[in-house]
Write a structure and sequence with these properties.
Bound molecules: ligand PMT
Largest sheet: 8 strands, mixed
CATH superfamily of the largest domain: CoaB-like
Number of strands: 21
Radius of gyration: 26 Å
Oligomer: single chain
Number of domains: 2
Length: 397
Amino acid sequence: MLKGKHIILGITGSIAAYKSAVLCRLLVGAGAEVRVVMTSLAKEFITPLTMATLSQHPILVDFFNPENGEWNSHVKLGEWADLYLIAPATANTMAKMATGVADNLLLTTYLSARCPVAVAPAMDLDMYAHVATQRNMESLRRDGVHIIEPGSGFLASGLQGKGRMAEPADIVKAVEELFSEKKKSLEGKHYLVTAGATIEAIDPVRFISNHSSGKMGYAVAEALAQRGARVTLISGRTALDCPKGVERVDVLSAEDMYNACCERFEESDGAVMCAAVADYTPATVADQKLKKGDGDMSIALKRTHDIAATLGQRKGNRLLVGFAMETENEQSNAEGKLKRKNFDFIVLNSLRREGAGFRGDTNVVTLIDAESREELPLMSKRDVAEHIVDKMEHLLK
Ligand code: PMT
């Protein structure tokens, strides 16, 4: 469950920090890659050397390395992580998180994190029971932070009551449950995903197509399947293997893709239209290879069906997500498509952005709906897919 997961372990200044060493060891042992961020006070409770050795990575405390001035980017760290786990989380740190204070690396990383965040509070019983702490925890819950409840028992103060940080093994269990909840969140749903390029035959040996590799659409199919959805991937020509747990329907032309989508849309809960579909196809397909003559040649083209627009008309309360590949007037063109095709939201990528668009493993996209736009930085297509599926889930709620 935790294999390959990227986890930031945040450690704040509490006596319970000694348990963070065991926690780190358990997470690494379960296959997670762990990066540790500590507050300066946390260093008084457990040494950076211990945590660096157990996590197999240098510890991050300051915004920059005082020896060489190298910047510790909280933004990059926030993007890298699948989970930000703060254990122990003091009353002070939770109060700052609840109000958006960002006066250390651990807190700026919290504000930059796009992943789920979990905290394991640790403090004395009166601090824990205080109305201010309870209010802050409630506010964090409302912000979507998962609270791993502390246990009851002997506290470092000598008092007895609720406030002990949960035991490391229990925290690992809570983390596993968090990942499996996310994984299963779309169980019972069925989505179509179109991907790749269509092929429009001119004659038996030539065709019109485009540069789509299918990577973006396959990443979306995989992300949906990993969250438990049934996925039918309607795929133009690509060299990719079908993601695990996904049903693939191979098509060639825009007409084939149109038929495959229309047949299945009714029984689905929606579609993500990632394929680069030809807008025009040769008016006639020659039976034999066209022979070259002395002069120029032109080929008459006719319009293909707009698959997305057709599904948009039949959408009902299904979710419909579109893509827009633009080379100019990106924003207005994408907004036009959003309305015309009746998408719930559209994923804009532009060929003018380095690292975006066809073939590569990365993309730079903006998610646009009727009310808002969210610009995402350069990231892997797989991470873009997670953001798209997050937004779909958000709209379902
Ligand atoms: O496959 P990769 O190499 O990873 O590249 C990814 C990608 C660049 C192909 C992908 O990110 C992308 O942008 N896909 C949509 C490309 C496109 O055709 O955009 P468009 O602006 O022409 O079309 C708008 C929307 O209508 C798209 O959702 C498209 O799938 C859909 N459409 C278009 C024409 C048509 N006849 N039928 C459609 O359904």
